[in-house]
Structures are given as structure tokens and as C-alpha cells.
Amino acid sequence: MSAPLRLGTRGSALAMAQSGHVADAVRAATGREVELVEVITAGDRSSAPVQRLGVGVFVSALRDALLAREIDFAVHSYKDLPTGGEGGLHIAAVPPREDPRDALVARDGRTLAELPPGATVGTGALRRIAQLNALGLQLTAQPIRGNVDSRIRRALGADADLDAVVLARAGLARLGRTAEITETLDPMLMLPAPAQGALAVECRIDALDLVEQLALLDHAPTRAAVTAERALLATLEAGCSAPVAAYAELAEGDDREEIYLRGAVISPDGSRDIRLSRTGTPADAAEIGKALAAELLELGADSILGPPGGPGTRTQQFGSTE
Ligand SMILES: NCc1[nH]cc(CCC(=O)O)c1CC(=O)O
Predict the structure, then answer these.
(1) Which one is catalytic: 64, 72, 80, 254?
(2) Which of 253, 175, 195 is nearest to 12 (CA)?
């Protein structure tokens, strides 16, 4: 008999929901017992704006617990992971992705097009603010933070102070709250964040049996899509600090699978909006992402924003709110 596997998780409703889901999948695939171990991160302990806490606050405590052998594996929202990776750790599985699109939750059941000029739309991500501004609907995009429930209350609660909020559909789906969505946003209007809707299941790279067992949860098409999206992000991070969106879809071509990657870099005020796409084979996912990023840079992605640290700087101003 082997000891139960310890799955480290944040205590938020969303983290518990996704960890519980992965725990069930691990039990089903391996027959092993799994227990949840709550890990409190700096991001949970502090109410300071995420932009001040910096990228990765929600991730580093889980990684520390993995490296300290306090837990055996962890589940992250893939889009919250820094592109760098962590020494000694390995993403053993990328389970099937939830719907990666963004969703609008608005008062009176409204869609984006039905919001009047001047309507206030809350979101934490500069990527979403930039794309809302690019729509030209005269919406007032407002930075907000907090958990999914408190964000929804900003638009639908008794003390609502906004007309709408934009959230990842995946988070609402995992919490069983898709009924509150008033419009699922077409990627033509609101291209999702790289890896949105996907999870990363991480363990120590030297835990060879566990690496093998967790791999049973891996979904190759999701891994290919996320690889392309994050290769684009990583390449742009070196050359540009603008809001970045990326979404890869896999489709059955005539005689083989094809990957269709879209990428966008948008200025925060929406006045500049560079969008490109590229296709290829899933095996070349990383190269497709890098090549599309290079094309975006050639078209001026690096010149979209002012100086580093200026008003549009993604990492410094908004950190891991994406
Ligand atoms: N930015 C925080 C965050 N990180 C992961 C999700 C849930 C969706 C996902 O797993 O991609 C959310 C909430 C949101 O963006 O609305």
C-alpha cells in the first residue's frame, strides 16, 4: 500500500474546485488515494493590489511546498504560471481545457453591444481593458480584483457599482456559475490570455513514478495549444510589455491535424491593435508561437507602449491578475 498523494492547493473556491476535479481524475486513473493540503500563498494573505505583489504570488508558495516535499503535486491555472518554469519541477500533465473564452456578466442580461456609452465594465486584466477600449463602444473599463464571487457582485449584487464585469468563462464553469453569463465573448472581439482555461499539474521532476502516473491525465491537443500560446507570450515578453492575447485551436485538416494560432498585442487605450494568425502542425507548436510573436514584433508590437514602467506596462502595473 502506498501512502496517499498530497495535492497542495490554495483555499479559494476556484482553486479548491479545480484541485478537487484533478484529485478525482488522479484517483480514477491511478487507483491511488489523494488528499488535499491547503497552502496559503502571499496573494491570499494580502489584500494589496496584485500589481504591487508581482507576478507569481499565487504560484510560488505551492512551488516552495513542492520543493520542500510538503506536498507531492499541485494544480495551477496555467495562465497564472510565469513563462520561465521552475528548476526541479515538471508539468506532468495538462488536462483537457475548459472553454478558454472570456465572459461578460452584465446587469439586466445585457450583451456588450447593448451596454450604453459610458457604461462601466470591471476587469483585472490589462489585456481585457485594452480590448474593451479597442471596441470603440465608449465603455469605461475599470481595473478590479478579488475572487470570482466578489467580482460578480460588483455587477449583480445588491450594492453593485459597475454595469458589467468580464471574467474567464473557465473559472465560472468550474464554480458552476455559467448561468450568470450574459455573453460569451467571441475571440474576434476579446482574444483570451495565453493558456486561459487550461490547468498545469506539477510535481518534482525526480518523482519518476508520479511523473508517469500523472501523465495519464495529459491531453495532447491542449498541451499543443498551450505550448503555442505560451511560446508566443515568452517571445513577446523579451521584446514588448504590451497586453498580449493568444489562442490556439486544433482542427482536423484534410489529412492531418492542424493548429491555428491567433495572437494580438493591444495598446491599453485600444488605439493600436495588432492581430495576426498562423497555422501549422501541432508538433511544431512552439515554433509557430515564436514565429507569430516575431511577426507581431515586426509590425510594431514593441513600440505600442511608452517607456518601461509607464502606464501601460503589463507586468509592473497588473502583475499576475491575468
Ligand atoms: N486572473 C486570475 C485567474 N486565473 C485563472 C482564472 C480562471 C480561468 C482559467 O483557469 O484560465 C482566473 C480568473 C479570471 O481570469 O477571470
Answers:
(1) 80
(2) 175
Q: Please name every residue paired with 105 in a beta bridge, in sequence order, or none if there are none.
A: 165
Query: Phi/psi of residue 262, each to 5°?
Result: -110, 140
Please tell me the predicted confidence (pLDDT) of residue 265: 97
pTM comes to: 0.91
What residue ranges of the chain have pLDDT lower than 50? 307-321
> What is the Cα–Cα distance from 319 to 54, expressed in whole angstroms?
5
Phi/psi of residue 106, each to 5°? Answer: -125, 155
Predicted local distance difference test score (pLDDT) of residue 322? 62
Binding pocket residue ranges, ligand 1, CB within 6 Å: 77, 79-80, 124, 167-168, 170-171, 196-197, 321-322
The ipTM, to two decimals, is 0.95
Burial of 236 (0-12, 13-18, 19+ CB in 10 A): buried
Walk me through the domains of the chain, giving residue ranges and CATH numbers: 5-96+198-218 (3.40.190.10), 102-184 (3.40.190.10), 225-321 (3.30.160.40)
Annotation marks residue 284 as catalytic: no
Q: What is each CA distance from 83 to 1, 237, 315, in whole angstroms?
A: 37, 9, 12
Ligand 1, residue 192: give the atom nearest the CA.
11
DSSP 8-state secondary structure symbol assigned to residue 50: H
Alpha-helical regions (H) of the chain: 13-30, 42-45, 50-53, 57-67, 126-134, 148-156, 169-174, 208-214, 220-239, 285-298, 314-318
Strand partners, 273: 266
